Structures are given as C-alpha cells and as structure tokens.
User: Which sequence fits this backbone?
C-alpha cells in the first residue's frame, strides 16, 4: 500500500486542482447568486409551512372550540407514552376538561403487534380523566399526512384542534388544511433537549415531503373503510 500512496495522493491533488474558484468579480457574483437560489429553493417548503400554519397556533387557554382534538403519536417508552407524547396528551385532556373539544382522536403507529401507540395514548387519557367512550383510535397514522388524510377521509373530521409540540404543529396544520380539515393547533411546550433540537432540524427536511403531500394529496399508506368512531363519540 505504501507504494500506492503517492499515486493516490496525486489523484486527490489533481481532483482538487480541477475544482476552481471563480477568478473574476462576475464569476463570484454568479456563484453567490447560485448559492442564494439553492438556499431559497431549499427553504421554500419550510417558509410555506410556517406561513400556512403559523397564524393558527394557539394555547390550551385560547384554542377555539371544535368537535375533536387530534393528537399525533410521538413514540413509546416500554409501552407507555414517551415524555413528549405525554405532554401532548396532557394538553388534549385539558382541552376536553375545559369543554373546548368533545372527543379526542389519537392517531399513531400500530404497524406491529408489539407496538401500539393509539391504545397506549387511550390508556393514558383514561387515567387522566377522559371517558373512554370519548376517545377514538386511528391505528394507521404512520406519518403526519396519513394521520390528517385519514382523520378527514376515514373518520369524517371537518374541524379540529390539533395537538403536538411547537416544532411540529405548523406542519400538522398545513397538512390537515390540505387534507380538508379546518384546524387550529396547540403547540405544546417542550424542554430544549437533544430530542427538541433533533425535532427542529428534522422539520426543515420534512417540510419538503409535506409540500409534496399537500400538492399531490396521495392516498395514505392504508386507507380502509369509513369508521363511525368519531361520530359516535360526539353523540
């Protein structure tokens, strides 16, 4: 390998020489404009998402009344809601207790027998004072678009208060509006830890998929028949 190193290093240096920086003022101006254009295109979906959802973010105290609260899954720890998910559920329980909503749709992942977000969410809400008959589970909310699309197409939700962390709620609002739901959102506060930082960065990249989903409106991964759970919970 030692005998090959000079050749390898030479190829690297040769490649580096081929990447030439602009030599003129016009060249630098064109390079700058290209960087700006790429940056604007990359951030356009996030800008759309914040412009669409931002004005409809509220708190538990000032959220407008709606028939249903929609709570998005956020992971389980040993079969129980993660701290982030528990905070969402606490907010949903408070909305129900205040009379802001009359039913709660919990939407999450139940793609395997051993992982059941909706039932874990239901159990948590019942333990915190929400009657079981007022809680409806969507077991195929595999991502935000699927949850919003299914809420409208399968469960008949037309108006709702969405509940999620602040870094996610604008995307949820934008997608639910695209899915046909008139929604406001409660952005639940979160500790600024590693999970929060990851969630914020993830939203930048997720915005691109959200924009595509809103434009193309694909069928969710699992559609299935219409369900009467929400209508029955509201009676």
Assistant:
């Amino acid at each position: 390998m030692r005998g090959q190193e000079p050749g390898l290093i030479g190829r690297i240096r040769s490649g580096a020489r081929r990447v030439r920086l602009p030599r003129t003022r016009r060249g630098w101006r064109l390079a700058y404009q290209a960087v700006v254009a790429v940056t604007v295109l990359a951030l356009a979906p996030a800008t759309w998402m914040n412009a669409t959802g931002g004005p409809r973010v509220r708190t538990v105290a000032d959220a407008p009344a709606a028939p249903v609260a929609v709570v998005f899954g956020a992971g389980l720890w040993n079969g129980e809601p993660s701290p982030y998910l528990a905070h969402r559920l606490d907010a949903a329980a408070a909305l129900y207790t205040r009379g802001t909503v009359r039913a709660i749709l919990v939407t999450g992942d139940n793609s395997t027998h051993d992982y059941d977000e909706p039932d874990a969410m239901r159990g948590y809400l019942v333990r915190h004072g929400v009657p079981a008959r007022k809680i409806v589970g969507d077991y195929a909310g595999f991502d935000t678009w699927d949850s919003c699309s299914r809420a409208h197409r399968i469960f008949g939700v037309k108006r709702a208060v969405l509940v999620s962390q602040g870094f996610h709620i604008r995307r949820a609002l934008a997608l639910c509006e695209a899915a046909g739901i008139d929604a406001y959102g409660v952005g639940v506060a979160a500790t600024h830890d590693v999970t929060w930082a990851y969630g914020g960065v993830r939203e930048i990249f997720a915005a691109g998929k959200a924009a595509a989903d809103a434009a193309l409106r694909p069928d969710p991964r699992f559609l299935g028949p219409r369900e009467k759970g929400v209508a029955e919970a509201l009676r």
In short: The chain has a mean pLDDT of 84. The longest helix spans residues 25-53.
